[in-house]
Specification:
The protein is built from two helices and 16 strands. The chain is mostly beta strands. The chain has two domains: 7-141, OB fold (Dihydrolipoamide Acetyltransferase, E2P) (Beta Barrel), CATH 2.40.50; 147-233, Carboxypeptidase-like, regulatory domain (Immunoglobulin-like, Sandwich), CATH 2.60.40.1120.
């Protein structure tokens, strides 16, 4: 999924943010994003820095947000962290305000030497994250056990679901199967491990959708965790 950020104009502290636009598939499952993230943390925004477009010095190509880490739900992080977001269509769907506290699902970008988030995921202001925090608490109460593979099968545009597709997840401990419902959705309960997921239906050939949360041929399911993917007809 494209990482991205807030679009803004003006000077650093007077920048007026605009919302990003999220393409399907939606919504991002909290459980899947939690286990896909290196760090999940509450953090307070302390500074915003803009990066100029090298081809247009007066334009903004990206923002770097400095935040002070608070409660950590997953991973290890402390002190001040930097979040990079490009000024593109994948920007966040919420406003960034200095002094506000956010719940962030983060992965580290080696190229940017900073953290990134999925602007269309479950990151956002803590004061609007009650349901997400409740689900995180439920996840953390689990003590291992099986995980789940969630997915949807559709036409490439992702707007037309394909029902009655046979889906199998093949891992070192066996093969686990499911059939898509009328909405093209499926769920497979599996032991922790690495899986390759394939979909079959007469007259169709399937692969990962152009917009997909995961690689269907290399899915790692943690104990008590879940993953989410999108398959599309080719």
């Amino acid at each position: 999924m494209k990482k991205g950020l807030l679009f803004a104009v003006g000077v650093l502290l007077s920048a007026v943010p605009a919302m990003g636009f999220c393409s399907v598939p939606q919504p991002r499952l909290v459980c899947a994003e939690y286990f896909a993230s290196e760090v999940v943390v509450e953090a307070t925004l302390v500074n915003i820095r803009t990066i100029s477009d090298k081809d247009d010095p007066e334009g903004i190509s990206a923002f770097v947000y400095s935040l002070r880490a608070g409660q950590v739900f997953r991973g290890n992080i402390a002190g001040i962290l930097q979040v990079y977001e490009g000024n593109d269509s994948g920007r966040a769907t919420f406003d960034w305000k200095i002094g506000q506290t956010y719940l962030l699902f983060l992965s580290h970008s080696a190229s940017e030497k900073a953290w990134e988030l999925d602007g269309c995921g479950n990151s956002g202001p803590v004061n609007r994250a009650r349901a997400v925090l409740e689900e995180i608490a439920t996840i953390q109460k689990r003590h291992g056990g099986d995980g789940h593979i969630y997915g949807v099968v559709s036409q490439q545009a992702l707007s037309v679901p394909i029902p009655q597709v046979q889906v199998e997840a093949r891992g070192t401990d066996g093969v686990y199967k499911a059939t898509t419902n009328a909405k093209g959705e499926f769920e497979i309960k599996v032991p922790p491990g690495v899986y390759a997921v394939r979909a079959t239906k007469s007259g169709f050939r399937f692969g990962d959708a152009d917009i997909s949360y995961a690689n269907s041929l290399n899915l790692r399911v943690e104990p008590g965790g879940c993953v989410q993917l999108q398959l599309a007809a080719r």
